[in-house]
C-alpha cells in the first residue's frame, strides 16, 4: 500500500491553512476562487442560502473616529516606487529591504519582502493588514483579494497583503527537485505490514528519505543552513513592524487567518500597543507543541468527516446517490478494501487516451482529509464517494490530482505556484517542536506516536510524520516549544471559530479566547476552516461594524447560525445516460454546474495559462482566465453519455455569470445558447434542438 508519508508532504503544507483553498483549498485550495463560488451559490436557488442570528451589538460604541496617527500609505507607495502587482493587478506592490536578522545589527545580510496594497477608496480610517497566508508557505500577494471584502471597508481602509520572507516574491527559497523526489510515486502500494511505517524496514526507509530530503533541499536552496533560523515567524513579525513604521501608522487593525493567526498572536505579544484591534480566524493555539496540535487536528478531521456523512443521510438527493446506503459504511468498506488491495483505474486524459494508475488506501485518506476543509469541498467528496460506490473511481482520482498537484498522466509532482512546500518546513520546523532529545530520540518518538493513529482507525491520520523532517531540519528547536497564552491586554480581539473546523480545531480557538483580556468569541455551530468573508451576516457584520464604527458585541460569546453549516446542499451528477434527459433547460443548468465543479477547474490556481481536462464520458474542455473572465472551449465533451457538446463559453469571475454556445451531436442534434445571470437568477436557452426551435424559459 502507498507510503502515506508521501501524501503528508502536501497535506503538511496546508494542515494549518487556507483556502482553501483552499488547501479550499486548497486546498492548496484555490481559496479566493472557492470563496467566490460560495458567494455565488449563496444567491443561487436550491443550492446554498446562508442565514445568521442577526447582530447583537453593545448599546454604545467603544469609541469614535480614530485619534491616533493613520500614517500615509500613498507616500510610502511613492517612496518605494510601487507598481501594479503582476500577479494581482488590483493591488500595488512595494518592496522593502529587511535585515536578515532583525536582532543582530552587525549582520549585514538582507531579504526583500513584498507588500501588496489596495489603498482606501475614500476617507481613510487606517490600515487593515492581512496576515493571510496559510500553511505556513502560502503566498499572500497572488492570493489576496478585494472581492470578499465589504465595500465600506475598502472605502475606509488600506488593505494590505504580503509574501512573508522566503515565499513567493519575497526572496524565495525553493528546492523543487528535492521536493519532487521526496513526494515520490503517489501510487506506491504499501504491501509490507499494515498501513504506514509499522515495520523496522519501513521506518528505516522513511527516516533515510527524510534525512536525504533535508540535505538535498538545503543544498538546492543555496543558503547556509545556519541562516534558515532567520525565516521564522519571529522574524516575520519584525518585518510587519518595520512596514508599520514605514507607513507611519500609530495603530492599525490586524487580521490573521489559519497560520496567519500565529503571526498575529506573536505580533500582539510583542507590539500590542500598535494594534487598534485584532481578528483571529481559524486560530492556532500556540501553547501546543507540534505533536499535540497534530493529534488535535486528527480528531477534528474525523469529526468533520462524520458530520459530513450524517448530513448526507438527511439529504434525500445525497442518500439517493448512494443508493440508500449509509455513506459512512460505504467509506469504511472502500477504505478497508483498499487497505487490503489497491484498485487499478484508467484515468481519462484530454487527448482521448488513458493513464493506468492505482487507487490506494492512502490516496483515499489523503483526499478525504483535504476535502474536509470547506463546506463546498465536503459536498464534492460525497459526490466522488457515491461514484466510487457505483464502481467509478475517477471522480475521487480527479479530486486527488487537483488537490495535490500531481500530473494525472505521469503522477509527477507539479507543486502549487501559490504555495511553497519548503516554506512550510522552514517556518514550521523552526517554530515548533516534535518531542525532545537527540535526532534519533525524536524520530523514535515520532514513530511511536504515529503508530497510535495509523490505518483505518481512526479514519483520518494526523500530520505527526512531519516530525521526521523537522528532526533533521537545522533550525528545529532541541527543546520543547510551548508559548505562554496570549493575553493581549487592552486589545479588542475577535476569535472567529467553527465547531467543524478540521485544520484549526474549535478547542484551540476556544482556549485562545479564554485567556484574552478583551476577547469576543464568534463561532459557527458547524462551519469550516475560517469564517470571515463568506457573506455570512455572522460573523461578517460584527467584524465590519468593529472596523467601521468601533462597535463591539454585547456578549463575549455568540453562536453564528448558518443554514447549511456542514456542506453545500447536495448537487447530484448529471445522468450517465443522455437518454434519461427530459427537461432541456434543467439539463444545461446542470452542465453549467458540472463545468464549475469539475475538480480540475474548481481547484486550479493556474488559470492564467490554458488548462485542459477530459470530460466525464469523452471529449475534453479547456479554460483560461484573463481579466477576471474565464474563456472555455469544448471539443466533443460529454457530461452525459450521448450529449456531445462542441463550442465555447465564458464565466465572469464576479459575479460568475455564465454564457455558452454549443453545437450538439450524439443522441440528438442541435445548436443552443445558454446564459445564466446569477445576480438576477435569470436563465435562458435559445436555438434549435432535435429539429425544433428552443426559446426557454
Short description:
The chain is 35% helix and 21% strand. The protein is of the alpha/beta class.
Rounded mean pLDDT is 89
Q: Structural class, please?
A: alpha/beta
Low-confidence stretches: 1-54
Number of strands: 21
Topology readout:
Elements: H1 5-14, E1 19-20, H2 31-41, H3 73-79, E2 83-85, E3 88-99, E4 110-118, E5 126-131, H4 151-156, E6 157-163, H5 176-183, H6 200-221, H7 233-247, E7 252-257, H8 259-271, E8 275-281, H9 290-313, H10 316-321, H11 327-340, E9 343-348, E10 354-359, H12 361-371, H13 375-389, H14 394-404, H15 421-431, H16 439-450, H17 466-472, E11 493-498, H18 506-515, E12 519-524, H19 537-549, E13 557-560, H20 584-597, H21 599-602, E14 611-614, E15 620-626, E16 629-640, E17 643-652, E18 658-666, E19 670-677, E20 682-689, E21 692-696
Parallel strand pairs: 5-6, 5-7, 7-8, 8-11, 11-12, 12-13
Antiparallel strand pairs: 2-3, 3-4, 4-6, 9-10, 14-15, 15-16, 16-17, 17-18, 18-19, 19-20, 20-21
Main features:
single chain, 697 residues, alpha/beta, 8-stranded antiparallel beta sheet, 21 helices, globular
Commentary on this structure:
This protein has 697 residues and is of the alpha/beta class. It has 2 domains: 1-61 and 171-232 and 293-573, no CATH class; 578-696, no CATH class. It contains 21 helices and 21 strands. Strands 2-3-4-6-5-7-8-11-12-13 form a 10-stranded mixed sheet, sandwiched between helices. The protein has an 8-stranded antiparallel sheet with strand order 14-15-16-17-18-19-20-21, with helices on one face. A two-stranded antiparallel sheet has the order 9-10. Strand 16 and strand 17 (643-652) form a beta hairpin. Helix 7 packs across helix 8 (259-271), helix 11 (327-340) packs across helix 13 (375-389) and helix 16 packs antiparallel against helix 17 (466-472). The protein is globular. The N and C termini lie far apart (52 Å). Mean pLDDT is 89; it is low at 1-54.
Amino acid at each position: 500500500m502507498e507510503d502515506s508519508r508521501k501524501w503528508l508532504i502536501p497535506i503538511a503544507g496546508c494542515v494549518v491553512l487556507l483556502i482553501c483553498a483552499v488547501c479550499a483549498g486548497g486546498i492548496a485550495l484555490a481559496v479566493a476562487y472557492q470563496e467566490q463560488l460560495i458567494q455565488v451559490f449563496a444567491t443561487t436557488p436550491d443550492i446554498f442560502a446562508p442565514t445568521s442570528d442577526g447582530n447583537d451589538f453593545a448599546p454604545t460604541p467603544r469609541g469614535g473616529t480614530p485619534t491616533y496617527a493613520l500614517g500615509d500609505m500613498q507616500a510610502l507607495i511613492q517612496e518605494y516606487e510601487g507598481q501594479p502587482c503582476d500577479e494581482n493587478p488590483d493591488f500595488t506592490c512595494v518592496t522593502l529591504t529587511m535585515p536578515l536578522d532583525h536582532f543582530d545589527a552587525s549582520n549585514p545580510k538582507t531579504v526583500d519582502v513584498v507588500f501588496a496594497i489596495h489603498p482606501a477608496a475614500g476617507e481613510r480610517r487606517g490600515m487593515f493588514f492581512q496576515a493571510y497566508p496559510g500553511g505556513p508557505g502560502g503566498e499572500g500577494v497572488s492570493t489576496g483579494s478585494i472581492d470578499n471584502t465589504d465595500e465600506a471597508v475598502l472605502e475606509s481602509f488600506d488593505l494590505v497583503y504580503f509574501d512573508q520572507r522566503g515565499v513567493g516574491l519575497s526572496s524565495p527559497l525553493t528546492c523543487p527537485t528535492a521536493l519532487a523526489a521526496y513526494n515520490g510515486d503517489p501510487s506506491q502500494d504499501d504491501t509490507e505490514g499494515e498501513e504506514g511505517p509499522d515495520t523496522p524496514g519501513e521506518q528505516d526507509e522513511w527516516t533515510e528519505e527524510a534525512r536525504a530530503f533535508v540535505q538535498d533541499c538545503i543544498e538546492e536552496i543555496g543558503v547556509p543552513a545556519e541562516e534558515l533560523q532567520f525565516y521564522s515567524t519571529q522574524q516575520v513579525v519584525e518585518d510587519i513592524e518595520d512596514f508599520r513604521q514605514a507607513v507611519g501608522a500609530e495603530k492599525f487593525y490586524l487580521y490573521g487567518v489559519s497560520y496567519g493567526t500565529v503571526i498575529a498572536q506573536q505580533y500582539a505579544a510583542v507590539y500590542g500597543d500598535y494594534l487598534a484591534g485584532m481578528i483571529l480566524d481559524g486560530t492556532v493555539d500556540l501553547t501546543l507543541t507540534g505533536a499535540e496540535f497534530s493529534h488535535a487536528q486528527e480528531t477534528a478531521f474525523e469529526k468533520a468527516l462524520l458530520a459530513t456523512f450524517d448530513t448526507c443521510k438527511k439529504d434525500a438527493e445525497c442518500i439517493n446517490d448512494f443508493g440508500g446506503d449509509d455513506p459512512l459504511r460505504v467509506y469504511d468498506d472502500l477504505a478497508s478494501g483498499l487497505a487490503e488491495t489497491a484498485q487499478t483505474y484508467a484515468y481519462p486524459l484530454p487527448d482521448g487516451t488513458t493513464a493506468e494508475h492505482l487507487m490506494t488506501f492512502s490516496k483515499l485518506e489523503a483526499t478525504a482529509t483535504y476535502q474536509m476543509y470547506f463546506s463546498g469541498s465536503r459536498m464534492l467528496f460525497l459526490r466522488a464517494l457515491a461514484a466510487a460506490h457505483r464502481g467509478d473511481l475517477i471522480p475521487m482520482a480527479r479530486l486527488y490530482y487537483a488537490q495535490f498537484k500531481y500530473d494525472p498522466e505521469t503522477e509527477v509532482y507539479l507543486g502549487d505556484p501559490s504555495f511553497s512546500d519548503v516554506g512550510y518546513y522552514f517556518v514550521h520546523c523552526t517554530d515548533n517542536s516534535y518531542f525532545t532529545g537527540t535526532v534519533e530520540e525524536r524520530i523514535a518518538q515520532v514513530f511511536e506516536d504515529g503508530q497510535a493513529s495509523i490505518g483505518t482507525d481512526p479514519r483520518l491520520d494526523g500530520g505527526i510524520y512531519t516530525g521526521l523532517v523537522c528532526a533533521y531540519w537545522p533550525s528545529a528547536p532541541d527543546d520543547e516549544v510551548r508559548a505562554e497564552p496570549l493575553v493581549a491586554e487592552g486589545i479588542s480581539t475577535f476569535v472567529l471559530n467553527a465547531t467543524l473546523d478540521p485544520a484549526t480545531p474549535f478547542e484551540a480557538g476556544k482556549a485562545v479566547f479564554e485567556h484574552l483580556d478583551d476577547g469576543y468569541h464568534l463561532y459557527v455551530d458547524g462551519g469550516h476552516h475560517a469564517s470571515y468573508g463568506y457573506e455570512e451576516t455572522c460573523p461578517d457584520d460584527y467584524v465590519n461594524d468593529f472596523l467601521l464604527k468601533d462597535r463591539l458585541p454585547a456578549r463575549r460569546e455568540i453562536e453564528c447560525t448558518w443554514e447549511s453549516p456542514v456542506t453545500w446542499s447536495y448537487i447530484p451528477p448529471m445522468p450517465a445516460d443522455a437518454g434519461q434527459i427530459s427537461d432541456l433547460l434543467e439539463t444545461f443548468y446542470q452542465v453549467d454546474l458540472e463545468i464549475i465543479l469539475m475538480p480540475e477547474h474548481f481547484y486550479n490556481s493556474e488559470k492564467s495559462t490554458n488548462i485542459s481536462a477530459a470530460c466525464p464520458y469523452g471529449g475534453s474542455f479547456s479554460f483560461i482566465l484573463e481579466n477576471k473572465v474565464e474563456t472555455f472551449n469544448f471539443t466533443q465533451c460529454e457530461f452525459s453519455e450521448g450529449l456531445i457538446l462542441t463550442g465555447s463559453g465564458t464565466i465572469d469571475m464576479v459575479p460568475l455569470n455564465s454564457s455558452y454556445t454549443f453545437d450538439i451531436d450524439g443522441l440528438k442534434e442541435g445548436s443552443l445558447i445558454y446564459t445564466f445571470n446569477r445576480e438576477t437568477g435569470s436563465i435562458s436557452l435559445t436555438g434549435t434542438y432535435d429539429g425544433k426551435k428552443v426559446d426557454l424559459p
